[in-house]
Prior knowledge:
- The protein has helices at residues 3-11, 18-41, 46-57, 60-71, 74-100, 107-116, 120-123, 133-140, 150-159, 161-165, 168-177, 184-205, 212-247, and strands spanning 127-128, 210-211.
- The protein is built from 13 helices and two strands; from the N terminus they run αααααααβαααααβα.
- It is 76% helix and 2% strand.
- It has two domains: 3-71, no CATH class; 74-247, no CATH class.
Amino acid sequence: MTIEEYIKSIVQKTNLSQSDRDELYFEIYDHLxxxxxxxxxxxxxxxxxxxxxIQNFGEASTLGTEIDKAMQxxxxxxxxxIGWGLFLPYSFVLLFKLLLxxxxxxxxxxxxxxxxxxxxxxxxxxxxxxxxxxxINYLSGFDPTHLLDPYNIDIVLMxxxxxxxxxxxxxxxxPLLFKQINNxxxxxxxxxxFILLIESLQLITFTGVFDIDDIILNMxxxxxxxxxxxxxxxxxxxxxxxDKVDTI
Length: 248
């Protein structure tokens, strides 16, 4: 095993951010190369010096876990507790709004299909795969002469802007709680899988429509949340780096 491979195996055992992992990598690399040089000065071969340096440094899996614990500051732990404190009730509200709190309103569409054979009750009533069709219908059906009608406004807002807003906390809190979600590609995969699951469950339980517009708007909200998290994390990392410079 090379020194580089050994260090990577240590770093991968941590739940640190990518910037902290990079910093940790170079710190360990400097220490190990110095240790290796000591063994080379004692007359050891290149391979022997590398092996002895690694053996003296310790077991990779154990070190990764211990380093991770040591580098998790009290502030980070506090943020994690707050994150879970927000995420758990938010998850309940999200599931209640999208699934648990809804009646099987669309069961009638399926019944109508079996009675009449009219495919439009399924394709048009339960499934919409035409992008922005539902959104345009909601906006075009909005009556500006009834602005004081709360039902009129709520229906439009909930099915357009509401579909974006409800997933912003999801996109923000998930990478906060799970450090493995450290790039937009991974985050997007998780977001789309969860949203597709919700849409599929709505269809199966007849509590909603499998609507491509919902998927697009929910995904937009999740990505806005993720972008907000990345922005705040960038600012936080900059503040920490300034603090480190000031203490030198």
